[in-house]
Prior knowledge:
Blueprint: H1 17-25, H2 29-35, H3 37-66, H4 76-82, H5 85-91, H6 93-96, H7 101-105, H8 108-127, H9 132-136, H10 140-143, H11 154-157, H12 160-167, H13 172-178
Helix pairs in contact: 1-12, 3-8, 12-13
Amino acid sequence: MPRRCAKNSSSDDSLSEEDVRKRIYRIDIIVAKREGIFAKAGKIFNDCRDKFNKSIKQLVNRYKDQHKDREGAANQEEVEEFIDDTVCRTLLSSNLDATKRVEILDNPYTTSQLKKFVQEAFKIHLRGGSDASLNVKTLDYITMELDIPTQLGIVNEMDVKKLLSCASIKNSRYRRLAS
């Protein structure tokens, strides 16, 4: 019996994980599973998140080197000064390459949310802890509703909340986001 995902708020019927995948990827699920497309896509997304977290850790180390004499935690103003627009664009450059970069950078709301995401990730890593990279995942709410223009328009066709609820049924963070 196929797993069921969170109910669609616009209807009473729930969609199976396979239904959601078909709508998002528009491919035959059996062929995709046989060819390992979902596993490959998952690996790419994980690699991208890992690269992001490593880059944030490097920024934290640079920040700590520059503020060796300082005691206490960084305040919001210091984080905003250190993680400015240039740092955000540099950090997200490979992600922005997959989009219509000019349209994103011309949208003040989108750029402010992306900057907020990077700043909050920076603060998580600055506080440290072995679960810092995992805690960055809780920041998805910042970028969840952003309009991300791409060449094929694929991102805006996705119901990201529903996708995340199916991506990891056992992860309560996704269930909370999907509701």
